[in-house]
TrEMBL record:
Organism encoding this protein: Desulforhopalus singaporensis
UniProt-listed SUPFAM superfamilies: Tryptophan synthase beta subunit-like PLP-dependent enzymes
Keyword DNA repair: no
Pfam families linked: PALP
UniProt name for this protein: Threonine dehydratase
């Protein structure tokens, strides 16, 4: 594989972009929805999302016969909106993801919906942990696992399982330089204010609940946090098309972008990188790579 050649290492992809719904999100969604009681199922669930979390929730809800209310920012990719409509989700739009989160919480309180956070939720974290189970089954002697980080749900689940089974495995998190919340919290070893800027990777961007349970898990289990620029992400998108004929969304490619950027540090290692999502319209993808 070309990435192995570039890094002078043995690099494997965990292609969560091939999952049902086009990302890893269905794992946690089923975890959360299957444990709801009959009253909760009848009332339905509400989820704020940049897209993939909502698709995962809507897919699980449709399968289980549960009403799903998905709160999106206005900038959501049209492909994701089309997918949500196919799943019969009830869609509401808001100016940004933080407004969507606040309104979803209000809706849960006033209408009785079950609020499902994409990351501050044990069911979502444990769903992410199943990725690590499969990784170790396939590559039991992996040295480094590279995972993208938004709210920290996926890396919390993966790192918890890996460290419990083999503390010598390193877990590296990757976040955008424009929205480096976990990078700063990790550096400071505490939750602090972080300046946020727009990014082409909405799934890795935006405000994170300061009370999130994922911070302490990341602090205790992750070995390194890496920042990647929007240009790094675009290079990752191009790389996957040119060398693997795979269209991946910017939020899903961050791990590959980090390896391209940090290749000199990886010589001789066995590395697994989680490619987390593919849900991007062709027009948006074309605009980014060109």
């Amino acid at each position: 594989m070309e990435l192995s050649h570039i890094a002078n290492a043995n690099v494997f992809f965990k292609m969560e972009c091939w999952q049902h719904t086009g990302s890893f999100k269905a794992r946690g969604a089923f975890n959360c929805l299957q444990i709801l009681n009959s009253e909760q199922r009848d009332l339905g669930v509400v989820a704020p999302t940049a897209g993939n979390h909502g698709i995962g929730i809507a897919y699980a809800a449709s399968t289980l016969g549960i009403p799903a209310h998905i709160f999106l920012p206005d900038t959501t990719d049209q492909l994701k909106i089309k997918y949500l409509k196919k799943l019969d989700a009830n869609i509401s739009k808001f100016p940004d993801i933080e407004t969507a989160r606040i309104e979803a919480l209000k809706s849960a309180k006033t209408k009785g919906f079950e609020f499902i956070s994409a990351y501050n939720n044990k069911g979502m974290i444990c769903g992410g942990g199943t990725v690590a189970i499969e990784l170790l089954q396939d590559i039991c002697d992996v040295d480094i696992v590279v995972v993208c980080v938004g709210g920290g749900g996926l890396i919390s689940g993966i790192s918890s399982f890996l460290k419990a089974n083999n503390p010598s495995i390193q877990v590296w998190g990757v976040q955008t330089e424009n929205s480096p919340t976990f990078i700063r919290w990790f550096e400071n070893k505490e939750i602090t204010p972080v300046k946020l800027l727009p990014s082409i990777a909405p799934g890795l961007s935006g405000a994170i609940e300061p009370e999130t349970m994922t911070f302490s898990i990341v602090r205790d289990n992750v070995d390194r946090m890496i920042g990647v620029s929007d240009n790094d992400l675009i290079e990752g998108l191009k790389f996957m098309v040119q060398h693997h004929q795979q269209i991946v969304e910017p939020s899903g490619i961050a791990g590959v972008s980090a390896i391209l950027r940090e290749s000199s540090m990886l010589t001789g290692k066995k590395i697994a990188v989680v490619v987390t999502g593919r849900n991007i319209s062709y027009s948006e993808f074309n605009d980014l790579v060109n």
